[in-house]
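Feature request, filed as a ticket because there's no other form

It would be nice if the structure record came with a short human-readable summary line next to the tokens. Right now we just get the raw output. Example of a typical job, pasted below so the devs can see what we mean:
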Amino acid sequence: MKKLFKNLTFWVLASITAGILVGYISPSTGVAMQPLGKYFIEVVKLFINPIILLTIITGICGMSDLKKVGKIGGKAIIYFEIVTTIALVIGVVVAYVIQPGAHVDTSHIQKADISAYKQGAATFSWSSFFKSNITIQVLVFAIIAGIVISKLKHRAIIVSKINWVSKYVFMALHYVMYLAPIGAFGGMAYTIGKYGVDTLLPLMKLMACVYITMALFVLLILGAILKYCKVNIFSFLNYIKKELLIVLGTSSSEAALPSLMEKLEKMGCSKSVVGLVIPAGYSFNLDGTSIYLSMAIIFLAQVFNVHLSMEQIFTIIAILMITSKGAAGVTGSGFIVLSSTLTATNMIPVEGLALLLGVDRFMSEARAITNFIGNGIATIFISHTEKLLDHPKMLKAFSKESPLDEIYLKK
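Raw output as currently delivered:
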């Protein structure tokens, strides 16, 4: 029992439960808890770019062949495009089979103002996306810095200093993560208090569709990718369970991103691969967001009885393949991307987005968790195919989380 109370995962789970109860029993109190979740995320975000910078520089300097950096980057981009396209197609297929938008009575659904999202879609551009996305800028700078430092005569001294700084940055992050239960409590209490469970009922079928589809995507598609890498999906999910609960409580993958990078290194992924794939994937490998976007568009088409031909469906998927890549680093990104896609296709009334605002917050957890898992698995896949995944080290890391994993993985 004493060991349980020292377990951070236990406290995060308890905090999420407490947040749900507070938000349900006293909505005003729940809404007042918003700063706890908001500021926890803001503090963790301070670590993301320094960790990316330090990890990439030391990773590149540790590689004997710099051509491999370009090869890893190119392979990651191809992987991102293939997997997110599969996610888009799956979202469309499931939405057509289950038809969550059929016979939805919109008269009982509270309409909301979407003018801000329409304006955001009108002003969105790729140049502004890259300018506002600090993570991509840091990624590019770190790659250049890593290449330059690797060419220097005294690079060993510089790298040792960077490793020293990295040690204390991660040490500070570990202390901050002790605040995760507070952040998870604040985030969940605010969500329940602000939006209320009642907002879920009219669109419960859509929510169930989204959650079930993303769960199947993780277990079947991403699970198959891990199986190819000789990694068990359940062992990996168990290994990152603390991070998954933090993402669930805060509805933000950023809250656990630095911790994921550290855990991937500890389980045997190459530092250079972790440093390249995770920050790039955060912007371009959004599996959960892709599923949600395609399902939301088909849902709205069903609500408004808009029949889409196969040509129109392929057009929507093609547009989403581009617009979904800009869904990170932009406030209200999901709705901005949806609005821009609906405007571009001119097939479905953009005003239909107002129907989704009430439940979007409750689906953001599913998006964030799926995106988070997807980027971890992308890193494992790239490491494995580049023969940069240390399987014995992975076995040791998994067995520390659950001794049963060691037995399973030895079979």
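Something like this underneath would help us a lot:
The radius of gyration is 22 Å.
The CA atoms of residues 224 and 233 lie 8 Å apart.
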